[in-house]
Structure formats: C-alpha cells, structure tokens
Design goal:
The chain has seven helices and nine strands, in the order βββαβαββαβαβααβα. It has 246 residues and is of the alpha/beta class. The chain folds into two domains: 5-198, Zn-dependent exopeptidases (Aminopeptidase, 3-Layer(aba) Sandwich); 212-246, no CATH class. The strands form two sheets. The chain has a seven-stranded mixed beta sheet, sandwiched between helices. A hairpin with a 2-residue loop joins strand 2 (20-21) and strand 3 (24-25). Helix 3 (99-114) packs antiparallel against helix 6. 40% of the residues are buried. Bound molecules: zinc ion. Zinc ion binds at residues 11-12, 18, 26, 77.
C-alpha cells in the first residue's frame, strides 16, 4: 500500500510578502510552518509547492496540484485585518460528502487542540471561494493561523514553543485527515525518511513571462485597501498593493 500524499502550499512568496505587520512577513511564516510540518509527517509522502522564497501565482499552485494529484492539498496562511484566532476554509460549493469536508474537520480539531493552552479564538470551519480551493482538482483545505496585525498573536509567532505546537497540530491534522495513525505506523509500509520534495521545479523558469493584472490605481491608500479587500473577497487571495512614487 503506498503512502497517502499531502501537497503543502505555503502561501505567498517572492515579491508577494502576504500580510506584513509587527516586523513579520506572512510568506516567511507560511514557509517556516510548512517545512516544520513536513519534518514531522511520518507515514505520509510530503510535497511542497515551494520550499524557498519564490513567487508562485494561484494558478501555478493549482497546476502543481493537478500534476501531483495529492490526496490532500493544504494551503498555509496567516491572517490580518483586525481580528484574532484561527480559522480553516474549504470551497463553499462542496457537498457534505465531499472528502474535503471530513479533512477540514480533522485538521481543524487537531490544530485547535494543539493551541489549547494559548487560548486561541476558534473562528470556525468556514467555506469560501478562494482560488486555490475553487479551482483545485484535489481535496483542498486552507488554514489561516492567527492575525499578524494583532500584537499578541504576532508575538506568539515569535515564540518557538507556540510555533512547534502549531506545526505539531497541523502534522497530526494531516495524518488524521489522511487516515494515518499518529506516529506514522502506516499500514503495510516501511517508513521512509526525508521524503519531502518540491514539485514546482524551483519556481518560475528563467525566460518565463509573468503578467500582472491591475484593478485600479489610487491616490489614497484607504481606497487601494478597499479595492484590495474586494479582490480578496472575490477569491483572489494573492492580490496585493503595489506602491509607486511619481
Ligand atoms: Zn495569505
């Protein structure tokens, strides 16, 4: 019996830092968490959409999932925007029997359990039309771990015991979602170590052309932020603000 496959997707990267507050950049935290989770996963074959600080579009990430055919696609993010706590997402159009529904439950329960002693607010198991969920041909879950614009929660991301607990919770959640017993004694398989690998081929090849879509130019930051949050609500979670001085 071959091992189940998880494709970990650290959100953002390269020139897209994601949420940046309190001296933290989301892209760095997402990657750090993914690598820690990968190290802890026994009995599961681990793939990563990126294992370095490179830019991948949302379409790139979905294309990687289509090619790799994982049993679970798990996108790792941290939140911002004036809240606190942990939340998880699956695509909002799924039926109750879709495998992603049970996987979200397993992940969410393990992660909230692991964060228990930090009294993290449980924002719930949610559904949304985020691009990497909506267009993913494989069961896909996205997690938002704490708010970087919240001083206490940004502080927790700097505390190794917290980050290790979070990584442990995510790893156990992946195992639970994929039916692998804790400790990784997977039925019928000899344990391989170090079997994580990036499938993005090191990111975008030299010579590749990337096209940026602009949806507005604003003299006031507030208006730009407004348009950004509209784009994010529409599912373009990799939308960002680019500042240019004239
Ligand atoms: Zn993000």
């Amino acid at each position: 019996m071959s091992k189940p496959v998880v494709l970990l997707d650290p959100g953002h990267g390269g020139y897209d830092p994601g949420a940046s507050y309190n001296g933290l950049r989301e892209k760095d935290l997402n990657l750090m968490l993914a690598l820690k989770v990968a190290d802890r996963l026994d009995g599961v074959k681990v793939l990563l959409t990126r294992e370095r600080d490179i830019y991948l579009s949302l379409a790139d990430r979905v294309a990687i999932s289509r090619r790799a055919e994982p049993d679970l696609f798990l996108s790792l993010h941290a939140n911002a925007g004036g809240g606190r706590g942990f939340e998880s997402f699956i695509y909002r159009g799924l039926g109750a029997r879709d495998p992603a529904v049970a996987m979200q439950k397993a992940l969410h329960a393990e992660i909230m359990g692991a964060l228990n002693r930090w009294e993290i607010v449980d924002r719930g198991m949610k559904q949304a039309a985020f691009y990497v969920l909506r267009y993913n041909p494989r069961p896909a879950v996205l997690i938002e771990s704490l708010f970087l614009d919240n001083a206490r929660e940004a502080g927790l991301w700097r505390e190794p015991p917290f980050v290790e607990a979070l990584a442990g919770g995510v790893a156990r959640g992946v195992q639970a979602a994929l039916g692998v017993p804790p400790g990784g004694a997977a039925a019928g398989g000899a344990r391989e170590s170090g079997s994580k690998s990036a499938v993005s081929g090191g990111g975008i090849a030299p010579g590749t052309t990337l096209y940026t879509v602009q949806v507005g130019a604003f003299a006031y930051l507030e208006n730009a932020r407004q348009r950004l949050s509209e784009a994010q609500r529409a599912g373009f979670s990799d939308a960002y603000i680019y500042q240019k001085q004239f």
